[in-house]
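Re: export button greyed out
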Amino acid sequence: MRLIATLFFAFAMTTAQAEESRVISADGAITETIVALGAGAQLAGVDTTSHYPPEVIAELPKVGYLRALPVEGILSLKPTRLITTEEAGPEQTLEQIAAAGVDVVRLPVVRDVTSALARIRRVGELVGQQDEAKRLTRDIAEEVDTLKQSMVQKPPARVLILLAAGDHGVMLGGKDTAADALLLSLGLQSALPDVTGFKPASREALLASNPDAIVIAEARPGQFRPEQWPELTQLRAWRQGNRVTANAMMLLGFGPRLAEAFQTVAAIVPDETVISDAASETHAH
Amino acid sequence: MHTEEARRLPAPLAYGALLALIAAAATLAISSGAYPVTLQDLARMISGGVPNDATAQFVLWEVRLPRLLLGLLTGAALAVSGALLQGLFRNPLADPGLIGVSSGAALAAVAVIVLGGSGLAGWTALTGRWALPLAAFIGGTLTTLLAWRIAHRQGQTNVALLLLAGIAINAIAVAGTGLLTYHADDNALRSLTFWTMGSLAHAQWQDVWLAGPWMLATLVIAPLLARPLDAFLLGEPVAGHLGYSTAWVKRSAILLVALGVGAAVAVTGLIGFVGLVVPHLLRQLFGAGHRILLPACALGGGALLVLADCLARVIVAPAELPIGLVTALLGGPFFLALLMRNRFS
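Workaround output, generated via the alternate export path:
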């Protein structure tokens, strides 16, 4: 009887704990991770960089952009914890939210596989899903290793990454970006080594880059319109079909869909023969 | 030309109406927002008691109250500055942006947002969390003083030259901001876009203490310029003949605008239309006499901005709209309606 009572009490405690845990996630990749770990029910709100998975996001209150978080709006959702990145802001707002008794957790910005896996494990601890996180990271690590090994046989291809997002038009992904980090992780090179950050795409630079493969990251489906970029469709990589258009968050978020991102890019990197052609072509110029 | 006699409402009535408006706006601002605060809790907290909900207490004292005060001060400073410049230039279309305060502040703020981690790392290390507001304040006031310096010859300020210098400096500052925008990464781009739309959402007591005194100084000192500015309505030479030191009037007005608007912009970002529309609107109601107009602008500008802020925080709750967006969305059509009515009547 006493045992049953204790068990019941323990059960009541864990349920209460789960019910009490109200998490606001202000980062697309973190939101994805929380849902992927099966803790979506703890979400009390998300920021506007969170889009995936859409059926979960659609139900949740939006607290605005992660660099312009509202104090009162966040407190009104009565969260126990705010999980976000070092990019979130403004500083004062985060301090105020913490002062109001919310546990504010700021995770580092992730730009490589190791820290992506570390972030998933950390989020797993924060939402009480350590085992699930262990399983997910192991699966991702395995898939990524397999992909990397398949890439070893291919010479380092030069890949062009374009980002079609918001009202900024089409941007080139240069150094110090998640796009570059994705290429580096796969042992690939940027087709535009002189560009730093995301920069508006110059049509001539596109032609001159002559990449071996083209990756187009879209914030929303259909945002990139090939008919507006005849230069791009002139490129050999485009004509030979070494190209892919996919969701930007999946490709560049370094979240739980990391393996899918690697798979997407690896699939369009051409074989050795084509590469050596490209190399000789480049040298001939 | 309007004169003191042309005002349409007697002063006590005018102030009474504006004070009632402020009281209504303040009540609304204290009681509305994303976080639900019950009326009982509100009454209990205002009378010094402890509410049932500790977070409600935090929201009231640390979020809504500093935000209300900063809104009142900012709206007042912007409107009074607009009135000062409209009087000085004898042009109802003058607004504080005209003499470079906003564009100079924007250039400095954007520089901190974009280069804070690289070229200006020394500045951000030195000033910490105040890097942006301080830079914006300094940028805004320096730009204005530069415009004034260019227009200042032989102890006199040439108002037409001031206007032209302002336009040229604005163009340079906008180009500089554009250059920085080009250099910005995606995050900085979003941050600076938000900054240029203005916001009271991040108001804290520290902001009130830091920027409040400058704005308050503008509000308190500006009415001293009321009589000479009335004389300016008749033309600068007339004001001189009436015994006012026009050079002193111009210098004081520009300094007050630079400090008041510089401080406002520093803590809230760019909030448009208040400086242009509020003086214009109140002139229609109370006449052009600055003795009534300047204090009326302080009250009306504060009330209007606080009301706009109430809208900004509830329309898309729990997120918030930038307040500059709200003032422009409301102020633009309203201003147009005003112009149309005048045209047809």
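The domain at 4-344 of chain B is CATH 1.10.3470.10 (ABC transporter involved in vitamin B12 uptake, BtuC). The button fix ships in the next patch.
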